[in-house]
Amino acid sequence: MKHNLVQSIVEQSVMLTSEADWDKLIQQVHNSKFVLLGEASHGTSEFYTARVEITKKLIQEKRFTFVAVEGDWPACQAINRYVKGYDLVTKSAKDVLKSFDRWPTWMWANEEMIDLIEWMKEYNESGQNQTKVGFYGIDIYSLWESMDEVIRYLKQIDSTDLEAARQAFTCFEPFNRNNEEYAVSAGIFSEDCIEEVAKLLTTIQRKKEKYPHHEELNLNLQVNALVAYNAENYYRTMVVHDDRSWNIRDMHMVDALNEIMDFYGSEGKAIVWEHNTHVGDASATDMKDSGMINVGQVIREQNPTEDVFITGFGTYRGTVIAAEEWGMDFEIKTVPPAMKGSWEEAMHLSGAYDKLLIFTDENRQLFQGRIGHRAIGVVYRPEYEQYGNYVPSVMSDRYDAFIYIDETQALHPLVQEKAPVL
Q: Which CATH architecture group holds 3-137+269-408?
């Protein structure tokens, strides 16, 4: 580890000791319209609780109008309806989080999310801001659920466009709501539903302004149709071109984010919660070498520099919620000390305490070296992390700020599956 990097972190970072320290970060946001908050894993409690406090401050002090997360649109709509008062039946955030029933449920159905959801509901009810703050999922995986929602909404308003939706749904029916089955059929045997979902999306986009605005019906139709169209493309592509499917997914998240921004108009200001691999600018990593892009990169390219602020997160050691394989029950896994020569080790060597590092025009040149930066997914095997969990990154180009928590604890899922400490 080069001494000058550690020393630069010591000199440029500030210790985090209380929630009041988030003010330093909020001040740096200035008048940005997009604040992207990352995470080094989908199963770390402190990443969630920190984002909750930062999000509250952004809404209260900077008048941000919605939170967009790496989650499914239909499930997140349950939260949106709850916090905006459209849902008159559900009594608590804990109940509304039962909407998250697709693996990995722990990403959003966890104890840490309850605080934010209840706070947003109370904030909206207080009338502090004329525009009620929303909560949306911008991921791509809800192909079948989004098709269901399109049909349900079109039935509700007795639309003539219902036939186009039914034709699209009929095309998908033989695959029994199985994403893998459709992916193989479409990607290898060219038995796909491209024409049907394209027709559906075109029909809904053409009539975008004519659909009812009541309880965001028009936005729901638009984004659910967009999910169906892009998810079909994603699953059809992933079997043959996995790196290309990554780009389809992240471009979908950008498209969905922009649809929500358009819905809010000139008042639109987005707080985005996603993994570091999605929000940290891919052009500053080795992802660029593979032709991969991500949300952070594209949002930066689409907007003036001053409109986008990206914050990454990381830890040196601790515990995390993750699974041994895709679809398996979660476990509480031990996160070992960061690999020698990594960014996380440098942060630790600069002082074994929580800290905030803000990259500015004056200090960015101090952090221009490419260095391994740890990323933990929903599938995680600590014993093999040195072979694939570190993304070579130019940190001061990838982010505008970095939040480091020296030792972290596992997230607290609402559904307590078997979770032995390994």
A: 3-Layer(aba) Sandwich (3.40)
